[in-house]
Design goal:
- 25% of the residues lie in helices and 25% in strands.
- It is α/β, with parallel strands linked by helices.
- Helix 9 packs parallel to helix 10.
- It has a seven-stranded mixed β-sheet. Strands 7-8-9-12-13-14-15 form a seven-stranded mixed β-sheet, with helices on one face. It has a two-stranded antiparallel sheet with strand order 10-11.
- The chain is built from ten helices and 16 strands.
- The chain has two domains: 255 residues, 4-Layer Sandwich (Metallo-beta-lactamase, Chain A); 36 residues, no CATH class.
């Protein structure tokens, strides 16, 4: 089952000519999950030729303008195509007020269901076949949330030799056992899946964190993420600014990644004060703490394979 992450924007506060506002889209088979939606998100979706009308859920970290002002455009655009499934919008308190006010003031024509869910703490906020998405409260200048998508455990690897040794003939019974069901041989003996399957294997985990100061429980929330996308808004030389504005430095993001034992860390939500060249300094600072760090770039596509 394919899983890909599309970086729609990496900037914080204001869009730049080469840097859109922070937003990422996760595609898991036929489902699309959008995390934050600043102005211009539609442009990046089009540039990456993504089927935006298939977006299932928009997860909003908080209601600052650089994270939500693209939502009205998505809502109106979605009315121009046939949409049978509802669009879910999940975020902190006041996201419902923002959506409803936008619909009312702009007099939107909406021909599909919009389901808004407000979240304030750590909980499971959305579930689908084989996965769940959880939220975690952050510490910013207004209520803010991190999100994590974690897949269920996968079945173990099928052992053909064990099946042969137990007298299970090659064919449909093998598939039945691999799907988790018991089979009965002609002799009347029952064979259980655990007799021919190896130990269950982990699925994938993706976490999205932006706009927060250090939160003690955050490393545990993102623990074992195959990919953590986390803000690194400031360099270490501006740590006082980061504390004052309740943001993370690149070094703090790396410390979270190291403590949480994640697979890869992608920095995002850069301050507009940094040029593209200067961003390399942030990456260098973070890599000293967590070598598997990279700078997320606008329009970057990242594959999320299953862990080995």
């Amino acid at each position: 089952m394919n899983m890909e992450l599309f970086i729609l924007g990496t900037g914080g506060m204001m869009p730049l000519p080469s840097r859109s506002l922070t937003s990422v889209l996760l595609r898991r088979e036929g489902e699309l999950f959008l995390f934050d939606c600043g102005e211009g998100t539609q442009v990046s979706l089009r540039r990456l030729a993504l089927r935006w009308k298939k977006i299932s859920v928009i997860f909003v970290s908080h209601t600052h303008a650089d994270h939500v002002t693209g939502i009205p455009g998505i809502l109106m655009l979605s009315s121009q195509v046939e949409r049978d499934e509802p669009l879910y919008i999940i975020g902190p308190p006041r996201i419902r007020e923002y959506v409803e006010a936008s619909r009312r003031i702009l007099d939107m024509y909406i021909n599909y269901d919009i389901v808004v869910k407000e979240v304030s703490g750590q909980e499971s906020v959305f579930e689908g076949e084989g996965y769940r998405i959880r939220s975690y409260p952050l510490s910013h200048t207004k209520p803010c949330l991190a999100y994590s998508l974690e897949e269920d455990l996968r079945p173990g690897v099928f052992d053909p030799e064990a099946a042969h040794a137990l007298g299970v003939p090659r064919g449909p019974m093998w598939s039945t056992l691999q799907s988790g069901s018991v089979v009965r041989l002609d002799s009347g003996i029952e064979i259980r899946p655990e007799q021919v399957m190896g130990p269950r294997r982990p699925g994938r985990k993706f976490s999205f964190v932006t706009d927060t100061t250090w939160v003690p429980g955050l490393p545990e929330f993102v623990r074992d993420s195959d990919l953590l996308i986390c803000e690194g808004m400031f360099g270490e030389e501006l740590v006082e600014d980061a504390v004052d504005k309740k943001h993370l430095t690149a070094v703090q993001a790396a410390q979270i990644a190291r403590q949480a034992d994640v697979g890869r860390l992608g920095l995002i939500h850069y301050s507009p004060r940094y040029t593209e060249r200067e961003l390399k300094r942030l990456a260098h600072q973070a890599k000293r703490i967590f070598p598997a760090t990279f700078l997320a770039r606008d329009l970057q596509v990242i594959d999320l394979p299953y862990p080995e």
